[in-house]
Amino acid sequence: MRSKLASIDTMKDNPSLVPQVPKPPVRRLNVYAFDPQSSVELKTAVINHTIIELPWENRWEDQLEPGPVNDYLEVIDCDPSSGLFYAPTDLNDPLLLAQDGLPPSEGCPQFHQQMVFAVAMRTIRNFERALGRLVLWAGDRNAAKYSPERNFTRRLRIYPHALREMNAYYSPSKRALLFGYFKYQESNADACTWVFTCLSQDIVAHETTHAILHGMQQRSIEASNFDSLAFHEAFADIIALLQHFSMTNVVRHQLAQNKGSLREPGLLNGLALQFGHATGSHGALRYALQYLKSSATAANPQEYKTIGKPKKLSETFEAHERGGFLVAAIFDAFVTIYEQKTADLFRLAHSGTTSTQDYLSTELVDRLASEAGKAADQVLRMCVRALDYIPPVDLHFGEYLRAIITADTDLVANDPMRYRIAFVEAFKKRGITVPGCISMAPESLLWDEPDLTEAPEFAGAGDSPEDGLSNVFAYLLNQLELSGSLKAGGRGSSGGGRRNLREAAMQSIQRNQARIYDWFKEDSPYDEGWEKLVGMRLIAFDDPRRKLPVDNMPTLWTGKADENGVFPQVPTVEVHSARIARRVGPEGQETHHLIIQITQKRRGYDDPADQDKADAGDVALLARDPDFWFRGGATMHIDLRDGKLIRIIRKNVCDNKRLAAQRAFRTGQAQGRAPGLYLHANSEPFAFLHRGL
User: 265 and 287 in contact (C-beta within 8 Å)?
Assistant: First the structure.
């Protein structure tokens, strides 16, 4: 015994002999699978407590602190209505680490903090896997022009008890998620029940998605057509719905209950059950499918029943209702893919027997749940990757379908399971069309490759316009920072001197944006070619270098007037994004793209007569603020390996037809549009949209 004690003392004196304990690969946290209501109903209580696994913090990230606070999020539990500040939870407490965090509880504010943190982080990680880069939050556009806060928000703040009202929303101005709570009374009960929106997985994932999408597309919160804010709502719903299928035990339970069908209304295709019940929806707040199968089997896909009165897209204008068409189309595509992948399992399970599908074996349910999870993950990635293929402004649903098809084709050229056809078919069923395409075949929906025959100017830099443009881009790429690593000695300005990869990534993006901006502003023999490619004006209309005349467009923004009231002559541009996406397909194929988004703005007027006068150079109109800003822009994909311009998605700022459509939308002249709707809510559009949800 004495010799053993001596050896222990020797180990204490010599740290090199002490075994190194590896970090856990994941951090496990208890959450509600749906919301607290499912825990007090007998048929769903068994599946409503689940665990989210998050990767353990990397050494280059902020380590988890009480709040919780990490590299991405800061949970601040201030309750203004009650005048309370709840103590932050410490997820590194040994007792919590030993039991996967706090157990689910409606009455424990610290569990509320844990829940919002876990769900938000899982949503962030799903985006990063699909995008091939880090998630970055939108900056504060009201901050000083050259301040770091204008373009970079270190952490998204989450307030679990910010509001005592029937609401929850992402605040672009605060760069924060604000969750409400409220009382409601059952019609047959005397007591009231508290509903906490922060305890709904669907609501937390939905609001986090708004924040991520705003960070990627800062103009996406501007209402320029019926589809713009409806897309924001629909996309957030899509992410929340598809994340249901990562909870394998829940999927197993629901598939067994519905005999393998995903078309029956239930937990998997419904959103925010408790909130919907409390607000009088008699079920989930929203269901994924407008038309749901009346049969419980996957063998009769033509048997449907409706949830509510069916509408047409052309007759629907409220953002959530209109977004429901996009949600239904994408979820229908997912279910079709699942049904196609599992049809052989049903045939094998029932071959040679006289049994019906009323009973599914445990083994079959396990396989079905696995296939549903894989299909949901694939569809989620397709939807997220498509965000890099949409125009920077004025998005329409049909353009998002083109983005899905093009993004998937660029990464996975072969589509043996016909995923892309499933998407096209589902969009067609909902009346979502793609103007300008001769057919709805997937190959016809691809964004066009650049037509450089329209820009022969680039031939001067190579043997052909294509080679010349690649050489021009290669020159640009040599000036940019294209590595994802920190520079030697690089340190974050807001991390107490400690290195921070996300902050360094944003600083690199900002430097690249500045270099691209300067590059576009420099005089170049290719300026006319650039104008044709990006659909914007880059030199003055009367510039002597122009070979072909163009109309003067004095409403284009050229910058602020000088002290003599004279405006610059050259239209200015904004470089919104310069990000790198490195992605790997299912068979190991890789893409390495630099994605640049540039925009330009033009004065817009609600009165068409004023617009005509301003476009003709009316000094009085040009001297005052316009009624609105009309924007155009382009998204460019450049192959990092050879400088080739792969795709360019444009919205021409000189397109008067699109300008007239935006004016009609603003003024109420468009069908079904109330004058002024959404316009007063530009600073907090989601607070306005989510009231009472």
Answer: yes
- Token pair 């301040």 is found at 147
d(CA 208, CA 576): 21
What is the tens place of the pLDDT at every residue in 74-88? 999 999 999 999 999
Amino acid sitting at position 218: Q
CA angle 204, 205, 210 (to 5 degrees): 100
CA distances from 640 to 465, 472, 507, 539 (A): 18, 13, 20, 28
Say if CB 674 and CB 476 are below 8 A apart: no
Whole-prediction pTM value? 0.89
**Residue-wise DSSP of 420-456:** HHHHHHHHHHTT---TT-S--SHHHHSPPPP-GGG-G
Contacts of 241 (CB under 8 A, 6+ apart): 202, 268, 269, 271, 288, 327, 331
State the pairing for strand pair 156-163/176-185.
parallel
Q: How far apart are CA 53 and CA 208, in angstroms?
A: 18
* 3-state DSSP of 24-37: CCEEEEEEECCCHH
The number of CA neighbours under 13 Å toward the Cβ of 55 is: 11
For 608, counting Cβ atoms within 10 Å of its Cβ (0-12 exposed, 13-18 middle, 19+ buried), the class is: middle
Paired tokens of 439: 């057919």
* Residue whose entry in the numeric block shows the structure tokens 């920072």: 481
Contact (CB, 8 A) for 688 and 175:
no
pLDDT in tens, 327-383: 999 999 999 999 999 998 888 887 766 555 567 889 999 999 999 999 999 999 999
Return the exposure string of 368-386: e unless at least 16 CB atoms fall within 10 Å of the residue's CB, then b: bbebbbebbbbbbbbbbbb
Q: Which residue reads 């080739």 in tokens?
A: 644
Joined tokens for residue 114:
């844990």
Strand-pairing partners, residue 577, are 597
Beta-carbon count within 10 A of 42 CB:
6
* The Cα angle at residue 15 between residues 10 and 18, in degrees rounded to 5: 80
Residues 226, 322: contact at Cβ < 8 Å? yes
User: Would you list the DSSP string of 144-172?
Assistant: -TTSGGGT-BS-EEEEEEEESSS-EEEET
**Positive or negative, the Cα torsion across 483, 638, 125, 36?**
positive
